[in-house]
């Protein structure tokens, strides 16, 4: 049997877009799903169960039972086959399947044999990943157990939606708080003016001339009118327009340079170690704790880092530099990803900047899936950011991303 190589769903880009829309922190989901992974293992009677999400480069085990949460290259995963369709995917004995017999988890500890996966399918028809159960012995699942695993998979997707709804609600609450501050500020001026003018009239008493009193009354009327106009504006505001706005900033979770640095090191150091690449993250001193929304940052930077590691050879280096520039009204996050990798041609750079990059092999022979940098460009454009690329063949690559935060 000829082994299949890196199957890619027909709706891959739409799948990745929806996964990025959830804006998950893959390292912070285990506690949300621990009960369901344990339940899946108990139902199937297997030693291990995993909830795996698959992005452009990596399979993330975001929750696990009987096994530590981990990440592996997408091309090494079994679940890449599960997300190809709407059917369950079963391998009775991984050691007898050409696609998997040489994988590290089959040849070495834990010497896995049995695999059964259920795609995690959203109502839009996108498979974000898979719920899978595994064992070191060959097994067979009854139809009743299969149906129960499908129910658990549906519940996992429902919980994804709940987490996103809560996150969006937090964002709306923060937006309301900001609007309250703005309203309080806008009202304070006119109300203060009314009170001040009334005080002047009161203090002058009988000394007030009629024309002066009329002028005071006109000023009071104008201040009162501005308050009424502000009230009308608030009451008539069409919040549905904000919902349909192309740029939707999610304030549900905030980062700082320091927390973003720690998160990147936590998530991508494993990939660097696997490739024997030195991975560092630095940030601008003095701006470490300034908060900004996390909106799609892990998806944008993560894809750039994974791409840089993929195209950097053994004993090379990948560095991420983070900076935050501020003025009176705006903040701009600057992300520079520098690698000592194989570099890019001018044609390849143009493909990326035009949003239609194709996949190529990494320095370790890693197979690509073609959408990582295309997704990055799409997400950056969506939040009105910018990206530039400086590179020469065999001289490394420098990505510079600027994002309004």
TrEMBL record:
InterPro entries noted in UniProt: GAF (IPR003018), GAF-like_dom_sf (IPR029016), HATPase_C_sf (IPR036890), HATPase_dom (IPR003594), His_kinase_dom (IPR005467), HisK_dim/P_dom (IPR003661), HisK_dim/P_sf (IPR036097), Sig_transdc_His_kin-like_C (IPR004358)
Organism (species): Belliella aquatica
Keyword Transferase attached: yes
Histidine kinase domain ranges (all copies): 182-405
Catalysed reactions, as listed in the record: ATP + protein L-histidine = ADP + protein N-phospho-L-histidine
GO MF, one example: kinase activity
Keywords: Kinase, Phosphoprotein, Transferase
SMART domains linked: GAF, HATPase_c
Record carries keyword Kinase: yes
Known EC number: 2.7.13.3
Enzyme class: transferase
Record-given protein name: histidine kinase
Lineage: Bacteria, Pseudomonadati, Bacteroidota, Cytophagia, Cytophagales
């Amino acid at each position: 049997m000829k082994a299949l190589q890196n199957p890619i769903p027909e709706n891959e880009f739409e799948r990745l877009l929806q996964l990025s829309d959830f804006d998950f922190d893959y390292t912070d989901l285990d506690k949300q799903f621990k009960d369901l992974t344990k339940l899946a293992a108990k139902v199937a009677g297997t030693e291990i169960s995993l909830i795996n999400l698959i992005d452009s480069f990596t399979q993330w085990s975001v929750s696990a039972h009987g096994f530590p949460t981990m990440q592996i290259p997408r091309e090494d995963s079994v679940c890449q086959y599960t997300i190809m369709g709407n059917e369950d995917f079963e391998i009775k004995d991984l050691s007898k399947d050409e696609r998997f017999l040489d994988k590290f988890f089959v040849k070495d500890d834990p010497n896995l044999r049995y695999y059964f996966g259920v795609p995690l399918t959203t109502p839009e028809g996108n498979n974000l990943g898979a719920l899978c159960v595994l064992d070191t012995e060959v097994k067979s699942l009854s139809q009743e157990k299969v149906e129960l695993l499908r129910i658990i998979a549906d519940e996992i997707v429902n919980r994804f939606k709940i987490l996103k709804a809560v996150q969006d609600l937090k964002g709306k609450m923060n937006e309301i708080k900001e609007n309250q501050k703005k309203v309080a500020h806008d009202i304070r001026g006119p109300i203060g003016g009314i009170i001040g003018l009334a005080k002047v009239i009161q203090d002058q008493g009988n000394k007030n001339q009629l024309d002066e009193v009329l002028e005071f009354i006109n000023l009071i009327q104008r201040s009162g009118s501005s308050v009424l106009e502000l009230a009308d504006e608030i009451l008539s505001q069409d919040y549905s327009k904000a919902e349909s706005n192309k740029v939707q900033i999610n304030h549900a979770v905030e980062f700082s340079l320091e927390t973003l640095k720690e998160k990147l090191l936590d998530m991508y150091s494993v990939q660097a170690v696997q490739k024997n690449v030195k991975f560092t993250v630095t940030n601008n001193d003095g701006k470490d704790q300034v908060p900004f929304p996390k909106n799609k940052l892990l998806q944008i930077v993560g894809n750039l880092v994974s791409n840089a590691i993929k195209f950097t050879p053994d004993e090379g280096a990948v560095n991420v530099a983070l900076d935050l520039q501020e003025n009176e009204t705006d903040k701009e996050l600057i992300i520079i990803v520098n690698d000592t990798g194989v570099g890019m041609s001018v044609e390849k750079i143009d493909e990326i900047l035009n949003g239609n990059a194709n996949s190529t092999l990494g320095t370790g022979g890693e197979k690509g899936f073609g959408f990582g940098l295309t997704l990055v460009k799409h997400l950056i454009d969506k939040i009105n950011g910018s990206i530039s690329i400086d590179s020469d063949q065999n001289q490394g690559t420098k990505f510079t991303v600027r994002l309004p935060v």
